[in-house]
Design brief:
Family: Belongs to the methylmalonyl-CoA mutase family.
Strand content: 5-15%
Helix content: 40-55%
Shape: globular
Protein name: Protein meaA
Cofactor: adenosylcob(III)alamin
CATH topology of the largest domain: TIM Barrel
Number of strands: 14
GO molecular function, one term: cobalamin binding
Radius of gyration: 24 Å
Number of domains: 3
InterPro entries: Acid_CoA_mut_C (IPR006159), Cbl-dep_enz_cat (IPR016176), Cobalamin-bd (IPR006158), Cobalamin-bd_sf (IPR036724), MeMalonylCoA_mutase_a/b_cat (IPR006099), MMCoA_mutase_a_cat (IPR006098)
Length: 658
């Protein structure tokens, strides 16, 4: 039982972890901030406004020591949501475990053999959904392979990778796509480990047994539960037939769950409680396909960062299910159900067909590089959005039953979400500067030089990374050294090949007419730049805006994620756009958005209006409006065609048209 937690600083997060463990939480799930996830230190320009917002900043071994102060790692079960720099964060974790063992006079190897937990480390889904990738697919897969090989030999109880279908669902995947693309990723990873020569063929069963999955549970109960039974059957089949694993226990699908956070609503957020409970049931009722670990979001995550009390409420939901009900006491209660079996068979057949399609293209990496998987997800999500907007897919409190009483949970004066003090970032930068002055700089440079040298060979990178951790290297320095060797990468956006299929109603046609007429009055086609400033890689919303804007007749400029305000301004000026739409979900809107406005003014383009969409509290929306933002949209504004209509109005206002 976990809650996904971490914010502000290592010290503040350590305090939160201790409180959660005292309340009966049985595992830790570490949320890292976006600079840490993308391999930047707190003082990098892209980190501005992002430090400590969506997780804890960990810049070096000192931060990792503080994060787990007083928590014996040999007895902990720690999940770390980290991907591109997963090797680095695990090296820091292992180093702290070694230090704890030495301080207690215990055998280091014995302590390492007891470490249990998971590093997410699924880079394929980062190219498809979350966007916290750093390096190109080839070098990224090499880092994963090296890490799996090292852990199998040295930390045998650790799960070195967590194949994440969770984020695929949030990016629009159907149950069939979610199962198929996750299994394609697993095949790519296992093939790479097998072919690397770092693991004996006889040890492949050990590798398979340490592969875990991280799955999304949506609110369509029967479909989600059937999906997990299909997942279990296909994993057993693939590991037996493709990798020759004979032990049924090693072939068991080991998965954890976070129920669907992006399915939570800003409108009537109290309804999220029952959504969360139903989604938890979908992955716990079927004993033959039951999750091994569950972490639940809080009811108010569509509003902002949950408070400790909100996380406690989410934890208590699991405890009530486990200790008060009899739901976990019986054999699989769905065995023999012809309804469930029919749905399972349907998902299995569809997933097999899609797996064959991807493998026929050369596997998951090739399907990422070609843009195939990304465009499929964008198209699926566009179809879902169309159903929500038409009312075919009901969201209670959003597009139906939207009358409401005032919520006591959000009463005036109640602090409905956790907020991060802006001083956190300043303190992190100051602490980083101090760290650099107190370490052995020569040892740091030697370890980084060795890392670069090893990266240019086929040698395993983990020992070189451990040496960097012990020397006091920072997260940004480790990533920077590998950036020099491997280069950086920008993944396909999937927008070009996607369309709002079926979207041809009267409302969209009316907006198309307004776009065309406004362009005629201005003497040129309307152009919108859709931008993702900062490090927030959740691009689903931005992609759907780009797709709908194109379908409405706009010329769309969308360059993908992780742009500086300066890059957005430069692109807007170069392309001569009529409006800029910024998408920010990480809480950095007050820092990065005004920089775009100021940059436009400095470039002589202050007349280009800027609109913003994201998870933005009402008070912040007011501040943004006062800073010159033309419109602010939040998750309650789900009608994309209405948003397009409003964008046309913004353009007309900015150009003095009636």
């Amino acid at each position: 039982m976990r809650t996904y937690a971490g914010h502000s600083s290592a010290a503040a997060s350590n305090e939160l972890y201790r409180r959660n463990l005292a309340k009966g939480q049985t595992g830790l799930s570490v949320a890292f901030d976006l600079p840490t996830q993308t391999g930047y230190d707190a003082d990098h320009k892209l980190a501005k406004g992002e430090v400590g917002k969506v997780g804890v900043p960990v810049a070096h071994i000192g931060d990792m020591r503080r994060l787990f102060d007083g928590i014996p790692l040999a007895e902990a079960n720690t999940s770390m949501t980290i991907n591109a720099p997963a090797m680095w964060l695990l090296a820091l974790y292992v180093t702290v475990a070694k230090e704890q063992a030495e301080a207690e006079g215990r055998d280091v190897d014995e302590v390492l053999a007891k470490l249990t937990g998971t590093t997410q480390n699924d880079i394929i889904k980062e190219y498809l959904s979350r966007g916290t990738y750093i390096f190109p697919p080839g070098p990224s897969l090499r880092l994963i392979t090296d890490m799996i090989a090292w852990t199998v030999h040295h930390v045998p109880r650790w799960n070195p990778i967590n194949i994440c279908s969770y984020h695929l669902q949030e990016a629009g995947a159907t149950p069939t796509q979610e199962v198929a693309y996750a299994l394609c990723t697993a095949i790519a990873v296992l093939d790479a480990v097998r072919d690397s020569g770092q693991v004996e063929p006889s040890d492949m069963a050990k590798v398979v047994a340490r592969i875990s999955f991280f799955v999304n549970a949506g609110v369509r109960f029967v479909e989600e539960m059937s999906k997990m039974r299909a997942f279990t059957a296909l994993w057993d089949e693939i590991t037996r037939e493709r990798y020759g694993v004979e032990d049924p226990k090693a072939r068991r699908l080991r998965y954890g769950v976070q129920v669907n956070s992006l399915g939570l609503t800003e409108a009537q957020p109290e309804n999220n409680v029952q959504r969360i409970v139903l989604e938890m049931l979908a992955v716990s009722l079927s004993r033959g396909a039951r999750a091994r670990a569950i972490q639940l979001p809080a009811w108010n995550e569509a509003l902002g960062l949950p408070r400790p009390w909100d996380q406690q409420w989410a934890l208590r939901m699991q405890q009530v299910l486990a200790y008060e009900t009899d739901l976990l006491e019986y054999e699989d209660i769905f065995d023999g159900s012809h309804v469930i079996q029919a749905k399972v068979d349907e998902i299995v057949a569809g997933a097999r067909e899609e797996i064959d399609q991807v493998l026929g293209m050369g596997g998951a990496v090739a399907a990422v590089e070609s843009g195939y998987m990304k465009s499929q997800l964008v198209a699926s999500f566009a179809d879902y959005r169309r159903k929500v907007e038409s009312g075919e897919q009901v969201l209670v409190g959003v597009n139906k039953f939207d009358t409401t009483e005032p919520s006591p949970l959000q009463a005036e004066g109640a602090k409905a979400i956790e907020t991060i003090d802006p001083e956190v970032e300043k303190q992190a930068v100051a602490a980083l500067e101090e760290w650099r002055t107190t370490r052995d700089s020569e040892a740091v440079e030697r370890s980084l030089e060795h890392l670069r040298a090893v990266a240019k060979t086929s040698e395993n990178l983990f020992d070189a990374t451990l040496a960097c951790a012990a020397a006091g290297v920072t997260t940004g320095e480790w990533s920077g050294a590998l950036r020099e060797v491997f280069g950086e990468y920008r993944a396909p956006t999937g927008v070009t090949a996607a369309s709002s299929s079926g979207e041809s109603g009267e409302q969209l046609e009316r907006v198309r007419t307004r776009v065309r007429e406004t362009g005629g009055e201005l003497g040129e086609r309307l152009r919108i730049l859709v931008g993702k400033p900062g490090l927030d890689g959740h691009s689903n919303g931005a992609e759907q805006v780009a797709v709908r804007a194109r379908d409405a007749g706009f010329e769309v400029i969308y360059q993908g994620i992780r742009l500086t305000p300066e890059q957005i301004v430069a692109a807007a000026v170069q392309e001569g756009v009529h409006v800029i739409g910024l998408s920010v979900l990480s809480g950095s809107h007050l820092e990065v958005v005004p920089e775009v406005v100021d940059g436009l003014r400095a470039a002589g383009a202050g007349d280009v209006p800027v609109i913003v969409g994201g998870i933005i509290p009402p008070d912040d929306a007011q501040l943004l409006t006062e800073r010159g933002i033309a419109r602010v949209f939040t998750p309650k504004d789900y009608e994309l065609t209405e948003i397009m209509d409003e964008i046309v109005t913004v353009v007309r206002e900015s150009r003095g048209l009636a």
